[in-house]
Specification:
Blueprint lengths: L4 E4 L2 E4 L8 H4 L13 H11 L5 E3 L5 E2 L1 H4 L19 E3 L2 E3 L7 H6 L4 E9 L11 E12 L2 H19 L3 E4 L16 H27 L7 E10 L2 E11 L2 E11 L1 H6 L5 E9 H8 L13 H4 L19 E9 L7 H12 L3 E11 L6 E9 L8 H19 L2 E2 L1
Parallel strand pairs: 3-7, 9-10
Antiparallel strand pairs: 1-2, 4-6, 5-6, 7-8, 8-13, 10-11, 11-12, 12-13, 14-16, 14-17, 15-16
The protein binds phenylalanine.
Phenylalanine binds next to strand 12 and strand 13.
Length: 414
């Protein structure tokens, strides 16, 4: 028999028991919204790049990576949940769609890059609603220094420069210690070096937050930009942090970052360096900066969306009237031991309905006391961005959802 193949970005791959990429995703892997003229994600990318003018700016690296590169090279433990088929998109056991831009850290450092930004599309299997979409975009940034006295003088000079800019800006920072027992210096590092680098990371990112949010918010001495640092954990940084910004009456999670785990730099062939890295998601920031209410809109081809944006400018999106939505419920029995995962259901719905699905929610769940079978009910909201859906059209889609559920997941429709 001929081996089944899947084509991704013009390349053929054999499929196996890990293959879970669906046409709905495949159709979008070449979109590169972050490079599309006047697209909000492109404007946001360029704004971030403008805060790092002397860094290398990469933005066209293929999303196909080995699981080794996405996870192992970054010291992810073997049992990390991100590796599961239910959480990530696999072409097959040996190739996947990157789940984060950190997958390219080793490659960038190995090329000899010492300060760089990398913008790219990333892929995660997830629930479906107005703020979750299986494809989104991240910017990774990193800077490494030589781990000796001369390198540290460079860090100190940069810290002085950055602190100078911040001193005259309207910004209120809730800081953490640069290191703490729960968020330690790596054993390989000189603690003085690690603290200087962590400080450089924080100063640099506080300035980035000013670039991103200082302009649109109308900050002043009385009403400064509020930035909050929180200790965090990532397998590939220590110490690690998250940054939140207070924007429109809410704390927004903006990014994760930290001092790069030395194993990463050793693997990249630059063991004498020490440095930091950060990663931020573009969509959620773009949603608040451009007032875009639904994450699916970034994928819209509708002129009423696209024509509202001007290249390089942050402007407020004016919602056009939405077409009406329509929901359908599906209830089914799942026998004991069935491993059906909520992400499987979301993926299946998205594969059948494409961007016509707005939201999938479980609205009922109970276990039959005698048979021990589980009954589940999901409510699927359908809405088109650019036409009014008829009940007949939606029924055709819903029937397909139901028959695929029966075919692929061994469930009994109620
Ligand atoms: N890759 C991490 C994520 O996707 C973010 C991160 C990047 C954290 C670099 C630390 C350093 O959540």
């Amino acid at each position: 028999a001929t081996q089944a193949k899947v084509e991704v970005l013009g390349q053929q791959f054999p499929t196996d028991d890990f293959t879970n990429i669906k046409p709905a995703i495949l159709r979008k892997v070449s979109a590169q919204l972050h490079l599309k003229h006047a697209h909000p994600l492109n404007t946001l990318r360029k704004l971030i790049e403008s805060a790092y003018p002397d860094f290398t700016h990469a933005a066209t690296i293929s999303p196909l990576v080995t699981p080794f590169k996405n996870f192992d090279e970054l010291s992810f433990p073997l049992d990390h949940p991100g590796r599961a088929k239910t959480d990530s998109y696999y072409v097959n056991r040996d190739m996947m769609l990157r789940t984060h831009t950190s997958a390219h850290e080793v490659e960038m450092f190995r090329k000899g890059e010492t300060k760089w930004l990398l913008t790219a599309d990333v892929y995660r299997r997830d629930e479906i609603d107005a703020s979750h979409y299986p494809i989104f975009h991240q910017v990774e940034g990193a800077q490494i220094f030589t781990a000796d006295a001369a390198g540290m003088r460079e860090v100190e000079a940069d810290n002085e420069r950055l602190a100078g800019i911040l001193a005259s800006a309207h910004i209120a920072i809730e800081d953490t210690p640069h290191v703490s027992p729960a968020n330690p210096v790596q054993p390989e590092h000189d603690p003085v070096f690690a603290e200087l680098v962590a400080k450089n990371l924080k100063l640099s990112l506080n300035n980035l937050m000013l670039t991103l949010f200082g302009g649109v918010q109308g900050i002043s001495k009385e009403n400064p930009l509020r930035v909050r640092w929180i200790e965090s954990y990532f397998p590939f940084t220590s110490p690690s942090f998250e940054v939140e910004v207070y924007f429109q009456d809410e704390w927004l999670e903006i990014l994760g970052c930290g001092v790069v785990i030395q194993a990463t730099l050793n693997t990249a062939g630059v063991p004498n360096k020490i440095g930091w890295a950060f990663g931020l998601g573009l969509e959620r920031i773009a949603m608040v900066l451009f007032s875009i209410p639904d994450i699916r809109m970034f994928w819209s081809e509708d002129e009423r969306f696209l024509s509202q944006f001007e290249d390089g400018k942050i402007t407020s999106f004016k919602p056009y009237s939405k077409y009406p939505s329509c929901f359908k419920d599906v209830s089914f029995w799942v026998s004991q031991g069935n491993t059906l995962h909520e992400n499987d259901i979301c993926d299946l719905v998205r594969d059948v309905a494409g961007d016509l699905v707005e939201d999938v929610k479980r609205i009922d769940h109970f276990v039959h006391p005698k048979t021990q079978r589980t009954s589940l009910c999901y409510r699927i909201h359908y809405r088109s961005m650019d036409s009014s859906l008829s009940n007949e059209e939606v029924n055709v889609i819903q029937d397909q959802v139901i028959s695929r559920l029966q075919e692929h997941f061994d469930v009994e429709i109620r």
